[in-house]
Specification:
Elements: E1 6-8, H1 16-25, E2 30-31, H2 41-53, E3 58-59, H3 68-74, E4 79-83, H4 87-98, H5 104-110, H6 119-136, E5 144-147, H7 155-162, H8 177-199
Parallel strand pairs: 1-3, 1-4, 2-3, 4-5
Helix pairs in contact: 4-6
Amino acid sequence: MDGSKVFCIGFHKTGTTSLANALTLLGYRVTGPNGVRDPEIAQNVHSMAFDLAEKFDAFQDNPWPILYREMDLRFPGSKFILTLRDSQSWIKSQVKHFGEKETPMRRWIYGVGCPVGNEETYIQRYEKHNREVLAHFKDRSKDFMTLDLSHGDGWEQLCRFLGKDVPDVEFPHANKAADRERKQSSWFRMFRRLRLRKAS
């Protein structure tokens, strides 16, 4: 692995876990999310991130999207990947996944800790982030790419950007809602079978 870093700077629920798994398959040491439950994340985030950035090759999920400017300055020549997703699909996933649960990290990023009841605030922050990232990396195709896994982007685009050979495995798709529902359904069926056996 060369000395350059890979920063995945798309907001959570845009395919960040899938991208982390893909980078791991390509040989990168990946970290993230980091510091999600640190009540002092706003004060600690830079020292934490700079320390982790020396120990890993690739970074995904929070707080990394918020730190792209600092990482761009500190690690010149690094690669930045903005994962994208339609705003309405994204907020539905936020609400379904996080509900009314609050974290210090989300309070720091959005100003409010949970998406339920704050959907418009979340969407505005999400879209603002994407606009600012695109403006920051304008005309820097060597350093920056967008990746939309929901529209079929995958190994070809990622490996071309990173200068890697395409692995002979399917691109990982983690945390799909359908997959979670399928797992829950299979657990329910297994639990029901066990109860029926005990009853008989």
